[in-house]
Specification:
Strands 3-2-1-4-5-7-6 form a 7-stranded mixed sheet, with helices on both faces. With 228 residues, the chain is of the alpha/beta class. It is built from 8 helices and 7 strands; from the N terminus they run H-H-E-H-E-H-E-E-H-E-H-H-H-E-E.
């Protein structure tokens, strides 16, 4: 039985350098399918709706760690007329997103998110999905502060719950159906690197942010919303 008392420090393949484009493209494709089937995109859309009671006024929505852009595409399919910014450290990811979703009103930025300065053009909302678990606790405190400071309305997080059922479920599902060696390796590690509610409460306390909510979502995720 895997020990999930504390967050794992094991490195995911996706966080290593010099990965071939074809491998990343297959990984992004399969993550899109997983997010669609297991409700990840629905949670992201729910997070956006926390900030826009109606969909009449266009806003700018920024995702840090955007990967292949599937979250922004899912938002655009459901909530039209918004502008998007996708930031990811890997140019292979932003290039993939720009190629797959040319119809999006999106600006794709290949950069460490923390080095992106919006100046006077801050996005209305910043969010991350399946991104936070890639970072240490210390780095996450900085991330929370960055999202709070650089957004007009606030931010939200859609990420995994550290849970043994989730760990073995995704391990078995990807072993049976995935064709991506990265997905097979990284999916269970992602769960082991993820969070409990107590983890999030501690991180927000360290970040000095008090105006937030944490809600459990199916399947084994948390939606965390922080409104300014």
């Amino acid at each position: 039985m895997v020990n999930l008392k504390h967050r794992s420090k094991q490195t995911e393949i996706l966080d290593t350098d010099n990965l071939p484009f074809a491998a990343i493209a297959l990984c992004m494709h399969e993550l899109n399918i997983i997010n669609s089937l297991l409700g990840g995109h629905a949670i992201t859309i729910k997070g956006v709706k926390e900030f826009i009671p109606t969909n009449n006024i266009p806003i700018t929505i920024c995702e840090i760690g955007c990967g292949g852009g599937d979250n922004l595409h899912a938002i655009d399919k459901k909530l039209k007329n918004h502008k998007y910014i996708g930031i990811d450290l890997k140019p292979t990811c932003t290039n993939f997103a720009a190629t797959i979703y040319p119809q999006l009103k999106a600006k794709w930025i290949a950069s460490d998110y923390s080095k992106v300065d919006f100046g006077n053009e801050k996005p209305d909302i910043i969010f991350s999905s399946l991104f936070c678990h890639h970072f240490s606790n210390a780095a996450l405190v900085h991330m929370l502060q960055y999202m709070y400071t650089n957004s007009k309305k606030g931010f939200f997080i859609n990420d995994l719950q550290r849970n043994a059922i989730a760990y073995y479920l995704i391990k078995w599902l990807t072993a049976a159906f995935s064709k991506s060696y990265m997905v097979k390796n990284d999916a269970p590690i992602s769960v082991a690197r993820s969070f409990t509610k107590a983890d999030w409460i501690s991180l927000f306390k360290l970040a000095g942010i008090t105006n937030y909510s944490i809600k459990w979502q199916w399947a084994f995720r948390y939606l965390i919303v922080c409104k300014k």
